[in-house]
Write a structure and sequence with these properties.
Elements lengths: L9 E6 L4 H12 L8 E7 L6 H11 L5 E5 L8 H11 L4 E6 L2 E2 L4 H12 L3 E8 L2 H9 L8 H7 L5 E2 L6 E5 H7 L11 H12 L3 E11 L14
Parallel strand pairs: 1-2, 1-4, 2-3, 6-9
Antiparallel strand pairs: 4-8, 5-9, 6-7
């Protein structure tokens, strides 16, 4: 019999440095989730990003008082260290499950309810979803508001059907019990936005937490230049 997890609620953890344009697109969909109030919160690890991320998140929190939106301030010298950013945000999380996501990924508005239902049905796993990659034209249209990722998500997904697709528990979507990530933690030995998610995945597997794809869970990755090791522009 599947383990029942009746208290499933989510802390969505996002790391963001100089990514405000893409974070705005992503946050619109997170704030429009159809899940009940109180079933999730959003925490953004912000290493004093100079693009106005802090002020934007304060505005989101005022506009959505029913949703806990937290700007987790992290030292600026840790801006490239995804592990350190992630760990700081997890320490501030209040819910029993943690969903690690990227600031450049957009999820449909039924994602939280879909994940909560999966957790309730099958219990502790390392859950993940599918990632499709949008092109530059669609990304630009979303950033400037010419297109809407809330109402056009299915259409955008169809347009990205022939592009690169990821279906692996990398850091764009890793959903685990909070006590697991609090004890394993992300490695801080890698001063980059690459590879620390793979180290965490390997540690979860050693712990016996098996990866499990959530059926129907997809996100759209917004196009941008390669920035694993440094981001000197505002994206």
């Amino acid at each position: 019999m599947a383990t029942q997890v009746t208290s499933a609620r989510l802390s969505i953890v996002i790391t963001c440095h100089r990514f405000l344009q893409r974070l705005r697109v992503s946050m619109r969909n997170w704030c429009a989730q159809d899940a009940p109030a109180g079933s999730f919160e959003i925490l953004v690890a912000d290493p004093h990003s100079p693009d106005g991320t802090r002020e934007y998140l304060a505005t989101v929190a005022r506009a959505f008082p029913e949703l806990r939106v937290v700007d987790v301030a992290v030292r600026h010298d840790l801006a490239r260290n995804k592990g350190a950013l992630t760990n700081h945000a997890v320490e501030a999380a209040a819910q029993p499950w943690v969903w690690l996501a990227d600031a450049d990924c957009v999820f449909p508005t039924d994602s939280v309810s879909r994940v909560l239902a999966q957790i309730e049905a099958t219990g502790p796993h390392l859950y993940f979803g599918r990632r499709r990659h949008l092109g530059g034209e669609a990304t630009d249209a979303l950033i400037v508001g010419r297109r809407d990722a809330i109402t056009e998500f299915d259409r955008l997904t169809r347009e990205a059907a022939d592009a690169a697709t990821d279906e692996y528990p990398w850091g764009y979507t890793q959903i685990v019990p909070r006590d697991v990530i609090a004890s394993i933690r992300y490695t801080t030995a890698i001063n980059s936005f690459a590879r620390s998610d793979e180290v965490f995945l390997a540690a979860c597997r050693r712990r016996g937490l098996r990866p499990r794809l959530v059926p129907g869970l997809e996100c759209l990755h917004l196009a941008h230049p390669f920035v694993w090791h440094a981001n000197t522009t505002f994206l």
